[in-house]
């Protein structure tokens, strides 16, 4: 790790650590605030529900007091209570000593034999409950309890709920009173006004009924349209079985407002942290790229120096040998002249690459496009490389299109692009002795393909090879000197011609580079 990167990482830690700590503290504070606010809000709503429950309980206590009014017999009190309250469908008074029943029903109720049978079935299943209620009564506490497990009977309104209580008449005879209520009417008549008063302008209050806590509840009564999909607080209604009171706010609930604020604050914090992290990453990336480019430039200078020194040394050595006249035959002289010519060509190719790159960097590189047949310049260029190909033992197969491929071309630039690809194919041919160059038409493009069977290019490096100074990290490429500019120049040339260069390569199996030029309209 370089000193620059270590410095940036240290700065990032110094900047981000306080921000992250603040974010954690803020999140914790928000959670505590939300929990406190929710507790306060819940207490307020629970207070309202307790008040409604107490009101309902008080109403039932008043009924029991009227029922046990010692001024009149129990049967007379029961009849008066039934007439005064239409919500009572049926009132059963059972004397516990002999289990005889007195059944009072409202005008709209039809009493049948099934009615008495259902009443007896309920009493038979509640001996323990009635015994416990009697113990409460004897202890001085008259408990009113929901009549659970009540089975709806025919002849009554479908909405049926039961309430039971133990009591003594004025003769101290023990009785049980079983009230069968028309649930919806009782809720509306008994609780409706109180619910409206408690709801005021900012709450909705509803009575919900469900056979099971997991079932979706049914709204028996509500002060306004009640939305079961929104947040609400729900507690059991003491006096009725399977019935509960529910409260929700109009508009957004307090909990929803707190959650919304918490989310907004968290989004701001996350956005701030993300921005800082992104800025740090961009800074690190820029520094890394700067360091990498600096290193690549250093390697470039070293490679260029080596590339120039090698042909210069050979030219000098062979020229000195020729000047001293130490060669025994004309054939040997001819070979030396060919080597000097070849190395001078290499040197020219290298210098041209560097000059072209400098012009591209300075945005001064221009191309002169003329209508040309793509097939024509290729054989001449291959002939230029004949000596090198023979020296490396590589056979070059040339397969040109049978029909002309007319494109707008800068011949010198095309020579440079093709030369770079041929140079690479020769450098990295590995153990292969084959090279194939072909031209063909593909849609609206004329293509020149250079295929070798050498070391290939890893998949991970195929998108980077056209970057300036980039060289694939491979044992053979590290041993083979190069500037890292060739493919960058090829891409710039193809882009300037309105074409493209593509690569298809498999590691250790070879690479195929394709230059695609738009066809001239006259030949399309």
UniProtKB/TrEMBL annotation:
Sections of the chain in a coiled coil: none
EC number(s) per entry: 2.7.13.3
The Histidine kinase domain, residue ranges: 303-521
Top-rank taxon, per record: Bacteria
Chemical reaction(s) catalysed: ATP + protein L-histidine = ADP + protein N-phospho-L-histidine
Alphabetic keyword roster: Kinase, Membrane, Phosphoprotein, Transferase, Two-component regulatory system
Top-rank EC class of the record's enzyme: transferase
Record GO terms (molecular function): phosphorelay sensor kinase activity
Cited PANTHER family: HISTIDINE KINASE 1, TWO-COMPONENT HISTIDINE KINASE
Protein name: histidine kinase
Organism: Reichenbachiella agariperforans
Lineage, opening ranks: Bacteria, Pseudomonadati, Bacteroidota, Cytophagia, Cytophagales
């Amino acid at each position: 790790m370089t000193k620059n990167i270590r410095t940036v990482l240290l700065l990032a830690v110094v900047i981000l650590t306080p921000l992250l700590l603040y974010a954690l503290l803020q999140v914790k504070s928000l959670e505590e605030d939300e929990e406190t606010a929710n507790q306060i809000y819940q207490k307020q709503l629970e207070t309202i529900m307790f008040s409604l429950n107490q009101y309902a309980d008080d109403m039932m206590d008043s009924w029991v007091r009227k029922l046990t009014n010692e001024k009149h017999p129990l049967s007379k009190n029961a009849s008066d209570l039934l007439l005064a309250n239409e919500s009572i469908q049926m009132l059963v008074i059972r004397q516990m000593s002999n289990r005889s029943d007195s059944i009072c029903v409202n005008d709209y109720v039809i009493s049948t034999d099934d009615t008495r049978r259902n009443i007896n079935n309920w009493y038979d299943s509640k001996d323990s409950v009635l015994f416990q209620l009697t113990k409460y009564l004897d202890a001085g506490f008259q408990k009113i309890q929901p009549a659970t497990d009540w089975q709806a009977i025919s002849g009554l309104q479908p909405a049926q709920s039961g309430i039971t209580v133990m009591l003594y008449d004025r003769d101290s005879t023990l009785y049980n009173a079983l009230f069968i209520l028309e649930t919806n009417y009782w809720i509306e008549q008994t609780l409706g006004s109180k619910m409206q008063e408690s709801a005021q302008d900012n709450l909705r209050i509803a009575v919900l009924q469900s056979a099971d806590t997991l079932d979706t509840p049914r709204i028996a009564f509500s002060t306004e349209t009640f939305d079961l999909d929104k947040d609400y607080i729900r507690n059991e209604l003491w006096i009725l079985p399977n019935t509960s009171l529910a409260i929700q706010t109009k508009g957004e609930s307090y909990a929803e407002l707190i959650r919304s604020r918490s989310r907004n604050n968290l989004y701001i914090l996350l956005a701030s942290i993300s921005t800082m992290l992104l800025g740090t990453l961009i800074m690190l990336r820029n520094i890394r790229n700067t360091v990498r480019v600096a290193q690549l430039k250093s390697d470039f200078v070293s490679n260029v120096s080596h590339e120039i020194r090698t042909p210069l040394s050979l030219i000098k050595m062979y020229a000195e040998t020729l000047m001293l006249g130490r060669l025994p035959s004309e054939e040997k002289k001819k070979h030396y002249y060919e080597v000097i010519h070849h190395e001078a060509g290499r040197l020219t190719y290298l210098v041209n690459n560097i000059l072209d790159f400098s012009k591209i960097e300075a945005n001064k590189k221009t191309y002169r496009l003329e209508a040309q047949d793509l097939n024509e310049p290729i054989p001449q260029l291959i002939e230029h490389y004949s000596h090198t190909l023979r020296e490396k033992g590589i056979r070059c197969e040339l397969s040109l299109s049978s029909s002309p491929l007319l494109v707008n071309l800068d011949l010198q630039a095309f020579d440079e692009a093709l030369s770079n690809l041929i140079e690479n194919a020769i450098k990295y041919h590995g153990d292969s002795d084959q090279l194939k160059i072909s031209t063909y038409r593909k849609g609206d493009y004329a293509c020149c393909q250079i295929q070798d069977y050498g070391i290939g290019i890893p998949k991970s490096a195929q998108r980077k090879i056209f970057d300036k100074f980039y060289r694939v990290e491979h044992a053979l490429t590290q041993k083979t000197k190069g500037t890292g500019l060739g493919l960058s120049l090829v891409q710039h040339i193809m882009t300037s011609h309105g074409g493209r260069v593509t690569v298809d390569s498999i590691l250790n199996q070879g690479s195929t580079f394709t230059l695609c030029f738009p066809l001239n309209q006259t030949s399309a």
